[in-house]
Amino acid sequence: MRQIDSEQLHERIRTENPWWAGKSIRDELDSLTPRAYFDLLFPLITELSVRRAIVLMGPRRVGKTVLIHHAIRALLDQGVPSRQIAYISVDHPLYNGLGLEVLIDLYRKAADADLGQTAYVFFDEVQYLKEWEVHLKALVDREPSLKLIVSGSAAAALSLKSQESGAGRFTDFLLPPLTFYEYLELLGERGLLRETEVAGRPLFQAEDLPRLNDRFLHYLNYGGYPEVVFSEAIQANPSRFIKGDIIVKVLLRDLPSLYGISDVQELNKLFTTLAFNTAGELSLQDLSTSSGVAKNTIKRYIEYLGAAFLIKVVHRIDESARRFRRARQFKVYLTNPSMRAALFAPVKPDAPELGPLAETAVFSQYFHDEDAQLFYGRWKKGEVDMVRLNAAQVPVWAVEVKWSDRYPSRLEELGSLIAFCRANGLTQAWVTSRTIRSTVTEGGVSLNFIPMSELCFMVSHNIIHGKRVAGGELL
């Protein structure tokens, strides 16, 4: 039986690193526009004063590998010697069974790297390596000249959450699906909005709101993944790409292999139910009754799906912004609204499903912001769609998410929002609309109406750029 020899491994690594031979990164990656998150990740890569590895996490097909290669290009542009930069895709069959330490040795020999200089080593798809956290921590402790960056999708994140190996050694960086701001940037349509100021508050307003809303609807159906945005062929059959290449691989491969799930159809059915009911209130009891699956099993599955970046659970508070000790009800949101279109069908402008999907889009702009403690309010006589609490568990702002222009003339239908604000000392709140911008005071509370598409852009832009609306009441 033939064995893989060292030269084959060296040749494979050289193939993955064409810059060692004076070339650039691959043309198909070089030509792509960097995501806005590149500007947040790259300073972490070049920070050498702190010995930490970077763990780049995110769902499948959101552009982690592309982001890595854009970082490599930037390092080369800054004058880092080409042989001090290595990219290794851990999932290649030739590397099967090889630990990170062995791969480092192979890189150094294949590149004839200078051991006395800092080397930037990128390990892609690290979830395929057993106990990668342990190996990575050992390298951080033992190799001060290495700046290590690893990437992984669902299984990597799950494994990371279940281990404490990286405490003080790893810096986590989450790359989410495309935000609405990034979506417009990639399409070259950032100019649809201009930055302005209303009542001393910095906001973004559309130059052409009908066009912006058209782009927003397209984003809901197709905008979560960079490849889908630019491919009419994929948009014609999103199920094949998103469901087949992203969702199914997580449900049928990543999660079962990590947690030993035997009934993958049970897991798949639950996810389909959650996706169909995105933005809806659910309970473990209702899910158990409808599926015939035990509540504890459903609870575990929901945790797995959340750690795999497919869903986000949002918990309930009461009129006084207090959490319930026994949280029977909760809401589940897809982390990316376009997953629903792939599973079922694209949503048309006036379809009843558009409301929950648009609400999902608003929430999804926040899900990658670790500081955002988002809840929904519901009590005996009312409810509020979205509430943010600060570290002291005090409400900072409240939002009613509507895809409708009817509410400025029907303020009585916003009574629950007004009551919540008055009960918690909030002097203003936000209400999304289709096209209306206005501020109306009712019951001592200023209600700021803003088109939903503008709000989604503002939130995602400001989170990425670290900006806040005046007073910090809304990102």
Topology:
Layout lengths: L5 H11 L10 H4 L7 H9 L6 E5 L6 H14 L7 E5 L10 H12 L7 E6 L7 H11 L3 E7 L1 H8 L8 E5 L5 H8 L5 E6 L2 E6 L2 H14 L3 H4 L2 H5 L1 H22 L4 H13 L4 E3 H8 L3 H13 L3 E7 L11 E6 L3 H6 L10 H11 L8 E7 L2 E8 L5 E6 L14 H9 L4 E6 L4 E5 L2 E7 H14 L10
Parallel strand pairs: 1-4, 1-5, 2-3, 3-4, 9-11, 13-14, 14-16
Antiparallel strand pairs: 6-7, 8-10, 9-10, 11-12, 12-13, 15-16
Total count of domains: 2
Question: How would you state the average pLDDT, rounded?
Answer: 89
Strand content: 15-25%
Strand order of the largest sheet: 8-10-9-11-12-13-14-16-15
Short description:
By secondary structure, the chain is an alpha/beta fold. It has helices at 6-16, 27-30, 38-46, 64-77, 100-111, 132-142, 154-161, 180-187, 209-222, 226-229, 232-236, 238-259, 264-276, 284-291, 295-307, 338-343, 354-364, 415-423, 452-465; strands spanning 53-57, 85-89, 119-124, 146-152, 170-174, 193-198, 201-206, 281-283, 311-317, 329-334, 373-379, 382-389, 395-400, 428-433, 438-442, 445-451.
